[in-house]
Amino acid sequence: MHAWPASEVPALPGQGRDLRIHDTATGAPVTLQPGPVARLYVCGITPYDATHMGHAATYNAFDLVQRVWLDTKRQVHYVQNVTDVDDPLLERAERDGLDWTALAEQETKLFREDMTALRMLPPRHYIGAVEAIPGIVPLVERLRELGAAYDLEGDVYFSVESDPHFGEVSHLDAAAMRLLSAERGGDPDRPGKKNPLDPMLWMAAREGEPSWDGGSLGRGRPGWHIECVAIALDRLGMGFDVQGGGSDLAFPHHEMGASHAQVLTGEFPMAKAYVHAGMVALDGEKMSKSKGNLVFVSRLRRDGVDPAAIRLALHAHHYRSDWEWTDQVLRDAVARLERWRAAVSRPDGPAAEDMVEAVRAALADDLNAPEALAAVDRWVARQEEAGGTDGSAPGVVSRTVDALLGVAL
After folding, report:
1. What are phi and psi of 287, to 5 degrees?
2. Which pLDDT belongs to residue 290?
3. I need a labelling partner for 325 at 20 to 30 A (CA). Which of 66, 195, 199, 217 fits?
4. Percentage of residues of the chain with pLDDT beyond 90
5. Which residues, other chains included, contact 34 with Cβ-Cβ below 8 Å and sequence gap of 6+?
6. Measuring CA to CA, which residue among 99, 86, 113 is closest to residue 228?
7. Residue-wise pLDDT tens digits, 318-359
8. Rounded to whole angstroms, how far apart are CA atoms 102 and 108?
9. Nearest 5°: CA angle at 382, between 376 and 384?
10. H or E segment at 203?
11. Model confidence at 248: pLDDT above 70
12. What pLDDT does 289 receive?
């Protein structure tokens, strides 16, 4: 599966700063100091609907992670999956009378177009669950050999008790885990499971649903969590720098994935930091497909909204905060974009070196994009009030906003 084209990232003078970011597993900030190649895995979409603002906010956060690392002169090895076979996709296809593979291809294509328009840096590897199945099957078989998996009516489950570190990503109690498991794709009430929290590794073939040859597992399809584990271990290996996604993935998805990988490899932890973006609401409720309260990136683009304004609207909120999308949020972003573009179109301005360092410092401090915007706003205000004599300053500002915020002025 191919990703989307990369926009060029301008090189800035000087040196960026190491990223200090909040780690869900420790509940505290950690300063990441990757080697020459920083390793990032971000969980991708289940392609049964278009990219909504909640998706965009999540991928915006991890685009900033990449840009901070690139500014430190590192390379970035970024991997993202696509869950192109799963119950929600199959249910949507059946509801609308569509072929599930065609639906997945259609929505993945639209996602790529949205990411291109928003100038999100693409992953080096963009991998669908279906194409990962040959690598998933041996991992499930290995977990069975290790005594960490068991069969139940043809399905294969992972035993959470096989990992002594289970629970150390989300730090939830058993009652909260059970509730979220039921809400987020698990089956805690299924009779015969050793532990209600045990997640499925391999689902035996169901009539009328797609299935693949699973070797000793029989025909079926993979569970959700093992999919990302297989892709991450194959492309990045254990101990990669950041596992990312929305805050709703901390449990069960990232918790279960970490346990799968740790049992498989005997190493701990799977990732050096677990980083989670907040949720975006509309009319007081979390934006989600099940609620039908979605603001789609593609619809905004069709309505003539500049993708750069959409990115500025996202940047106006700290990535870890839960926030609400409103018409005013977008109006403020459009106005900011117009001011910034007017400022950099002038022939000169006040010196911009302090602005560059302020943006760098803000983003290196747990991706504080609102403070980065404020640093640019202060330069724009100085130019509007008193002008300046530095003919290079507008270009420096433009390149900084492009390189570090992904916004083309």
Report:
1. -75, 120
2. 66
3. 66
4. 95
5. 69, 74, 241
6. 86
7. 999 999 999 999 999 999 999 999 999 999 999 999 999 999
8. 10
9. 100
10. strand 200-204
11. yes
12. 67
Statement to judge: residues 128 and 185 lie in one domain:
yes
Q: CB–CB of 76/38 below 8 Å? A: yes
The tokens of 326 are what? 């409103």
- Outline where 188-326 has alpha helix (H): 224-235, 255-265, 297-302, 307-315
* Residue range(s) defining the domain that contains residue 269: 20-297
Full DSSP string of 87-119? HHHHHHHHHHT--HHHHHHHHHHHHHHHHHHTT
Q: Would you state the structure tokens that stand for residue 238, as one six-digit string?
A: 């254990």
Place of tokens 């979390």: 286
Residue 48 included in any domain: yes
pLDDT computed for residue 305 by the predictor: 98
CA distance 40 to 123: 9
The answer to whether position 256 is within a domain reads yes
In the predicted model, what is the mean pLDDT of residues 116-139? Answer: 98
In this prediction, residue 119 carries a pLDDT of 98
The C-alpha atoms of residue 223 and residue 149 are separated, in whole angstroms, by 13
CB 75 within 8 A of CB 37: yes
Beta bridge partners of 80: 42, 126
> How many other C-beta atoms are found inside a 10 Å radius of the C-beta of residue 2?
8
pTM, entire model: 0.96
CATH code of the domain in which 345 resides: 1.20.120.640
93: buried, middle or exposed (CB in 10 Å: 19+, 13-18, 0-12)? Answer: middle
Question: 330 and 260 share a domain?
Answer: no
Closest CA to 221 of 233, 235, 213, 211: 211
Are 93 and 99 spatial neighbours (Cβ–Cβ below 8 Å)? yes
One domain, residues 52 and 132:
yes
Tell me the C-alpha to C-alpha distance, in Å, between residue 344 and each of 64, 119, 221. 22, 20, 53
Tens-digit pLDDT profile for residues 224-241: 999 999 999 999 999 999
188 part of a folded domain: yes
288/337 same-domain check:
no
Percentage of the chain with pLDDT > 70? 99
CA distances from 200 to 123, 196, 211, 251 (A): 27, 11, 15, 15
The CATH number of the domain where 83 resides is what? 3.40.50.620
